[in-house]
Write a structure and sequence with these properties.
The protein is α/β, with parallel strands linked by helices. The protein contains 10 helices and 7 strands.
Length: 268
């Protein structure tokens, strides 16, 4: 993942106003591209560059200072898969990797919303959308942006938010405070993997969570071996999510490799 510094929320100043910043609009369909561009103009946007595929959007984002991405996400197989586009953007090691991003979509499945969130997007708005919806979302992601997180497996605005603006859940901080133990937190993580991937109807990714749960089932503590196995499973899950559209045999080989590596590590 890119080594971005932590990005604090932008201050509420005229310089943070999204209306003064260039917007790169990626929308594969000509009708929706014009409709979304018109909505952005009605909301106050002055500088819009509209493209119909992800490669062009990434090029403009890398070439344009302080740009904002607005991406449409509709049918599978579109020239712009917005979740993949945001994930590719976050992998960029330059300033473009920190660009604020908004997905506009007609997809309402929980699995799609989770996939968008896990790509590193700032916000998502569902169609049909009004100019005020655009204003509210773009105000939020430029003036009150969540802290930017960069870890080995995720890059984007902090996903760990509680209702009503409370502090984000922090696994390490809760361990330090005595609210849980490292091994209990690792087991909870394995269970979360299973539930999330079952909801996404991704049996290969669910298999990763079940494998981790088995590895930790009888562990008395989270020692170096258990920590390494946990990190290996997290890396595998991130790899599977990045290759969600790849052929099944490609993804299956990744999980088979995990099983072999895990067996050798447990036997060591």
């Amino acid at each position: 993942m890119p080594a971005h510094p932590a990005a604090p929320a932008e201050p509420a100043s005229p310089h943070a106003d999204w209306r003064t910043r260039p917007i790169v609009l990626c929308e594969p369909g000509a009708y929706l591209r014009k409709l979304t561009a018109d909505l952005l103009r009605q909301a106050g946007a002055a500088r819009i560059t509209a493209v119909n595929e992800a490669e062009g959007a990434l090029w403009f984002l890398r070439q344009t200072r302080r740009a904002i991405l607005v991406a449409g996400w509709h049918e599978a197989g579109d020239a712009c898969d917005a979740a993949d586009l945001v994930r590719s953007l976050r992998a960029d090691p330059g300033p473009a990797g920190l660009a604020p991003s908004l997905i506009v979509t007609s997809r309402r499945e929980v699995t799609d919303i989770e996939r968008a969130r896990d790509s590193g997007v700032d916000a998502l708005v569902l169609r049909p959308v009004a100019p005020n919806d655009i204003i509210v979302r773009l105000d939020q992601l430029t003036r009150r942006r969540r802290p930017f997180v960069c870890s080995e497996h995720f890059s984007g605005p902090d996903r760990r938010l509680r209702p009503a603006g409370e502090a984000a859940y922090k696994r390490k901080a809760d361990i330090a405070a005595g609210l849980t133990t490292p091994i209990e937190a690792a087991r909870a993580q394995a269970f979360s993997m299973i539930v999330r991937m079952r909801r996404r109807q991704d049996p290969l990714a669910e298999r990763v969570g079940r494998s981790l749960a088995r590895c930790l089932e009888n562990a008395a503590s989270l020692g170096p071996k258990e920590a390494e196995i946990t990190a290996l499973h997290r890396a595998t899950l991130a790899r599977l999510e990045a290759l969600h559209g790849a052929p099944g045999e490609v993804r299956a080989e990744i999980v088979d490799s995990l099983d072999r590596l895990t067996a050798r590590r447990r036997a060591a």
